[in-house]
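Many introductory courses stop at the sequence. We go one step further.
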Amino acid sequence: MEIENSGQEKERAILAGVDLEDGDDFEYSMEELKNLAQSCNMQVVGIITQKMDMVNKALYMGTGKVEELKEFADTQDADVIVFDNALTPSQLRNLQQILKKPILDRTSLILDIFSTRARTREAKLQVETAKLQYLLPRLVGMHEALSRQGGGSGLANKGAGEKKLELDRRKIEHRLAELRKELEVVAKERETQRKKRVASHLPLVALVGYTNAGKSTLMNRLLDRYMQDGEKKVLEQDMLFATLETTVRRIDVPDRASFLLSDTVGFIHKLPTLLVKAFRSTLEEVKNADLLLHVVDYSDENYKRQIEVTEQTLKEIDCADIPVIYVFNKAERCMDELPRVSGDNRIYMAAGKGIGIEELAKLISDRLHEHYRQEIFLIPYDKGQILSYLMEHAQVKRTEYTEDGIRMEVSCSREDASRYSQYSC
């Protein structure tokens, strides 16, 4: 049992977890749960844990520990109890009957955070879908917790009579059907945008990594350095899940070929499957990438664990085979000489301070173009569109104006080399 004090007047929360001693980093998981709770404007006033061989199917924790939790919650005047793992509908119902307080689990806590962070229409639709899918099998015993959240789904969740529950179920199922139709429209719009990007023949680089590792900051520093367009910058804040929507920006690096850079939602330990499914269309940007920038908060003592979580999530969404550059960010907090490039897929840098941006851009360019071919083309003067295309999509090393046309030494993709082979010297 652990008691924590804070002078701030916030919703008072007690955290509860079961250590199965199964190799999972339980202490790290509980510390992360605390950070999640604080992101939901909660004051953690106590933590109760229990070591078990397996979770109790009826109550998640042992019967005696649940009674201890109830007494502790009453003593600490807790407003809500938060469990580290996802609770089954029956566990939630049984715990609610004993504890007599609003109950949340890790999944509902993350859903709460996503609800407050969602800004675009697509993100709001995705989060609402996930929340309602989570809620549907858990209606019994959830009403107190839902009233605490202000009825995030738009339903008046008060009263627990059978008729009320059945009415709620019908409302949720109807709303889910509406959301699926709206998301289908958004998915088609996103697919149209994706086809346009594919048609541009620009390689796509996707930022991935643990939440709050600095992905959005990295994108903004690249935009500052190479694009000088403040309107294109994305939100960057020191908070969990600051970014929920995918943003794609073009980066033009002088003397190197351009590429598209995509920033998307961060990952986290035990990221709810509901959210992965709901954000499927958003995560498609990652699946279509030519290169991943795996951004890691190198100053976090648990960074190795966070790398494992991100790699496991990438595996689950079928992205494990995409080439990766590991970007060890915030390295100024634990290293003196920066930037430091290690091989062709590791860089230690400080995006927030603008340290290592040029070195990263070079690393990206080298990795994207390692399979490019060196070609010499002679482009006739009346083929200006081909000249423009190569200037935009290839790395032009040298140009020379001759009587017969413009002689260009370029590094280009195999597809472009084949497409313009008739102009090859």
